[in-house]
């Protein structure tokens, strides 16, 4: 195949008619994808749309079933990522591939270390890294241990690593998944800097806000097919969502007025001290029936400790929790669940699911009415279990070949739906949701938001802890902002602003009545 | 496919490799492996008497394998069976010698139960230290095994020393505490044989058919998620160490009450250790556990014939066993080999 376009403009990346099939699945269905030199191009789509497969082909991890790849007009065939790296393609992975025990410089040069004869030349590594840092305005200490630096910093290290290997085309896989709002802004600045020196950037993401803010063009994939490439300036977030999902979505759900105003949960002066560290400091708040109380805060501000204590598997060192008028603090997790508390833990693989058990078994895990699933006092009532599981799978549209399929075989979104289906049943009065939609696609997020909203509208309560500020802001009735184990403030979601919450998240004491200037950032 | 691969193909391949490895060793030392294994099979299955010998030998091995396997369902590696088996044997010897005047229908089960209780008590200390204080249970089990062996010696050479016996042992237990024989010709097959099937059935039903078994499995596969789900994790962890303790005690008691009728120093040739590779290879499948136990018993029983006929040291059995344990530890390597031919081309 010859390049038929005019020679005046050669694309940095030109993938043509890429077809990639796995047994039983067409992951990429003859996709054309081209990226101009020096542009920021967002590749978006729901989970399973084929964006990661396409990028893995570009990065040499997969070989396409058919189709061809041109870099700067030259046809390339990659058999491994090494080929791709040599051709100037770099990837910044979603889960950083750094070794905590090594220093920043050591991590960056890992795999192509400068040597003095046979000995690793650490000084050359450090100076090489410093050179790149000054070239691109990065403030990273190459001698720092990687274990000691923040996630935002680690991402920069990954970027430097790609640049060190001479990458001209940088692929970012979900780069903002773990960053705070401030770090996301910082990343935006870095991307602009990289673009300014002529690097080509491909962003794989499903977060529209950043797509709209950072990118020049957007290519949307859906079910393995390319839907459209649009100029970011000529489109809107709504249009892109529509292209992605194929229908209109309403993430905020349908909020109805609720009458009940009594408190379901009253937390007073909750403290947690472990190994001399104050993890929670005098946390006090009320939650009403029929309310979604959002909890905002950067990761590690005490959110996990709070949900752990309410669910009963960490013991507070001080304070009280009243749930429906009764003390909850001294109870076992099982009793707490039987009283109607559902818990969606933050890590679905480690805390939420038994991956090697099947879907039906996971759906009844810790179910508050376990007697339903027992017959003759001790035996599993498989008929009941399957009936219950069938109903849950259907009503949550969990995509699975069967009820007796191992949970590990499902996609992340469907796994999370198993947990939600289990924890938001008719028996739960209060749902503690810790990062309920992390890593999920828009369709599934919408569905889970709707479940929370329905629970709220029927007089139940949801404590929704999330690192996604947008999610907290769109779904909550009130927002509690946490910082360093303390509650900074609880504010009305209808009038809250991103800036106000962002400042409290990093520890600024809220100043009511007064508008802060944007330049204080 | 993957499930089947693990439960059937993988252990078979490991066994084949182990025998191939042993054959190479024999060859290198100037022996004929075919002859040697032929003699081993002859010694284990060559005549009805040999078969009965093998079956008798398989009984304690099998119960130990079930014990290890049950603990494994809860995600814990149990190497304390050997010690619990010895203490269980001590318990049933005490009950068998010093409780008198009871009919067989009462004395036999009572003696078994005392043996099981002793085994369970011996498992209780490591269980509590591990579950309550997070002490490394492997180390605890190893210590307890050694201590058990010395306690046994103390009783055999000390307070329970038998009168006029040629080898260091206790007195004989009462007739009423002995298992009756199912058949006595051409060789003695004990009725204790049936206990294996009872144990297999009870464990299978408990683990796979009851709600408790379900919660135990969930605990074993993901202890953190089980805790988040409100499952009483500690209860199941105790159960999964104490229950096998009782099973080990049962295995020890069976040896005393159906074979030796007295406690002999060093009576166990390592039944508790034999149970470990069988439990790991069978991956919880009761039929595989029974077959594996017969195989191990046959190797032990047949090895003396092999030594006589082919001149190969019976210790080669230990080599095969060690190779199997190593193979289980290298499971990923085997999976890699097995998955290679069917690998999808990825470029």
Which architecture of chain B per CATH?
Orthogonal Bundle
Helicity level of chain A? 25-40%
Work out the strand percent of chain B. Answer: under 5%
Helix content of chain B: over 70%
Please give the CATH architecture of the largest domain in chain A: 3-Layer(aba) Sandwich
Q: Would you state the CATH class of chain B?
A: Mainly Alpha
Strand residue content of chain A: 25-35%
Output the helix-strand order of chain B. HHHHHHEEHHHHHHHH
Characterize this entry briefly.
The complex is a heterodimer of chains A (521) and B (347). By secondary structure, chain A is of the alpha/beta class.
List keywords for this structure.
A: 521 residues, alpha/beta, Rossmann fold, 2 domains, 6-stranded mixed beta sheet, 17 helices, globular, disordered C terminus, B: 347 residues, mainly alpha, ABC transporter involved in vitamin B12 uptake, BtuC, two-stranded antiparallel ribbon, 2 strands, 74% helix
Written account of the structure:
The complex is a heterodimer of chains A (521) and B (347). Chain A is an alpha/beta fold and 521 residues long. Chain A folds into 2 domains: 13-245, 3-Layer(aba) Sandwich (Rossmann fold), CATH 3.40.50.300; 263-347 and 427-520, Rossmann fold (3-Layer(aba) Sandwich), CATH 3.40.50.300. Helix content of chain A is 31%, strand content 26%. The longest helix of chain A has 16 residues, at 181-196. Chain B has 347 residues and is mainly alpha-helical. Chain B has a single domain, classed as ABC transporter involved in vitamin B12 uptake, BtuC. Helices cover 74% and strands 1% of the residues of chain B. Chain B has helices at residues 2-28, 33-45, 48-73, 81-98, 104-133, 137-157, 193-209, 211-221, 223-228, 233-260, 271-282, 286-310, 316-329, 331-339, and strands at residues 181-183, 189-190. Chain B is globular. Chain A binds chain B through residues 22-23, 60-63, 78-79, 311-313, 332-337, 343, 345, 350-357, 361, 365-366, 370, 373-374, 378-380, and chain B through 209-214, 217-218, 221-222, 224-232, 344-347.
């Amino acid at each position: 195949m010859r390049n038929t376009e005019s020679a005046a403009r050669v694309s940095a990346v030109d993938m043509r008619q890429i077809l990639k099939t796995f047994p039983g699945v067409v992951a990429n269905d003859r996709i054309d994808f081209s990226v101009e030199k020096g542009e920021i191009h967002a590749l978006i789509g729901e989970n399973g749309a084929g964006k990661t497969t396409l990028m893995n082909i570009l990065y040499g991890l997969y070989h396409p079933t058919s189709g061809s790849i041109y870099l700067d007009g030259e046809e390339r065939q990659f058999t491994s990522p090494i080929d791709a790296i040599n051709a100037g393609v770099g990837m910044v992975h979603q889960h950083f591939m750094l070794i905590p025990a090594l220093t920043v410089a050591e991590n960056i040069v890992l795999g192509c270390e400068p040597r003095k004869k046979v000995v690793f030349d650490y000084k050359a590594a450090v100076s090489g890294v410093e050179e790149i840092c000054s070239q691109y305005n990065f403030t990273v200490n190459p001698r720092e241990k990687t274990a000691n630096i923040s996630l935002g910093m680690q991402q920069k290290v990954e970027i430097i690593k790609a640049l060190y290997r001479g990458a001209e085309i940088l692929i970012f896989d979900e780069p903002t998944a773990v960053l705070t709002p401030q770090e996301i802004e910082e990343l935006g600045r870095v991307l602009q800097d990289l673009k300014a020196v002529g690097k080509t950037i491909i962003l794989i993401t499903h977060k529209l806000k950043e797509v709209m803010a950072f990118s020049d063009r957007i290519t949307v994939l859906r079910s393995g097919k390319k839907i459209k490439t649009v100029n970011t300036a000529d489109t809107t977030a709504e249009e892109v969502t529509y292209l992605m999902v194929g229908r209109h979505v309403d993430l905020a759900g349908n909020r109805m007025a609720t009458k009940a105003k009594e408190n379901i949960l009253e937390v007073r002066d909750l403290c947690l001290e472990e190994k001399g560290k104050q993890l929670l400091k005098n946390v006090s708040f009320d939650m009403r029936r029929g309310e979604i109380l959002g909890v905002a805060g950067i990761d590690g501000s005490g959110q996990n400790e709070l949900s752990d204590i309410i669910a009963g598997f960490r013991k507070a060192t001080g304070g009280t929790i009243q749930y429906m008028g009764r003390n909850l603090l001294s109870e076992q997790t099982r009793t707490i669940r039987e009283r109607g508390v559902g818990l969606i833990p933050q890590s679905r693989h480690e805390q939420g699911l038994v991956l090697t058990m099947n879907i039906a078994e996971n759906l009844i895990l810790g179910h508050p009415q376990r007697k339903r699933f027992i017959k003759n006092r001790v035996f599993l009532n498989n008929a009941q279990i399957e009936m219950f599981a069938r109903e849950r799978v259907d009503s949550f549209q969990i995509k699975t070949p069967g009820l007796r399929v191992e949970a590990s075989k499902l996609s992340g979104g469907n796994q999370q739906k198993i947990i939600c289906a289990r924890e938001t049943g008719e028996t739960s009065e209060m749902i503690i949701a810790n990062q309920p939609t992390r890593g999920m696609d828009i369709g599934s997020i919408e569905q889970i938001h709707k479940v929370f909203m329905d629970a709220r509208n029927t007089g139940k309560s949801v404590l929704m802890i999330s690192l996604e500020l947008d999610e907290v802001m769109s779904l909550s009735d009130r927002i509690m902002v946490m910082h360093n184990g303390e509650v900074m403030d609880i504010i009305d979601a209808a009038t809250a602003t991103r800036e106000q919450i962002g400042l409290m998240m990093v520890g600024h004491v809220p100043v009511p009545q007064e508008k802060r200037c944007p330049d204080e950032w | 496919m993957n499930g089947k691969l693990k439960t059937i193909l993988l252990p078979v391949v490991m066994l084949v490799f182990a025998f191939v490895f042993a054959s190479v060793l024999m060859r290198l030392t100037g022996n004929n492996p075919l002859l040697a294994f032929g003699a081993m099979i002859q010694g284990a299955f060559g005549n009805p008497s040999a078969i009965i010998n093998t079956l008798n030998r398989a009984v304690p091995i099998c119960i130990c394998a079930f014990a290890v396997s049950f603990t494994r369902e809860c995600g814990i590696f149990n190497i304390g069976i050997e010690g619990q088996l010895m203490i269980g044997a001590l318990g049933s010897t005490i009950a068998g010698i010093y409780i008198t005047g009871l009919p067989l229908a009462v004395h036999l089960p009572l003696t078994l139960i005392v043996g099981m209780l002793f085994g369970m008590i011996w498992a209780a200390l490591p269980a509590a230290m591990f579950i309550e204080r997070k002490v490394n249970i492997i180390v605890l089990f190893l210590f307890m095994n050694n201590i058990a062996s010395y306690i046994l010696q103390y009783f055999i050479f000390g307070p329970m020393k038998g009168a006029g016996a040629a080898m260091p042992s206790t007195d004989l237990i009462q007739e009423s505490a002995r298992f009756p024989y199912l058949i006595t010709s051409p060789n003695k097959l004990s009725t204790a044989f049936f206990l294996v099937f009872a144990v297999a059935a009870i464990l299978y039903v408990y683990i796979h058919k009851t709600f408790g078994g379900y919660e135990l499995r969930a605990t074993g596969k993901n202890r953190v998620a089980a805790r988040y789900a409100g499952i009483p994790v500690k209860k199941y962890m105790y159960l999964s160490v104490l229950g096998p303790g009782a099973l080990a005690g049962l295995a020890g008691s069976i040896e005393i009450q159906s074979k030796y009728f007295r406690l002999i120093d060093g009576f166990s040739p390592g039944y508790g250790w034999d149970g470990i590779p069988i439990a790991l290879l069978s991956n919880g499948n009761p039929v595989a556990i029974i077959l594996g136990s017969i195989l191990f018993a046959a190797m032990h029983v047949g090895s003396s014939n092999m030594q006589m006929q082919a001149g190969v040291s019976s210790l080669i059995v230990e080599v095969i066993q060690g190779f199997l344990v190593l193979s289980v530890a290298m499971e990923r390597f085997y999976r890699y080999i097995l998955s290679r031919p069917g690998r999808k081309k990825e470029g």
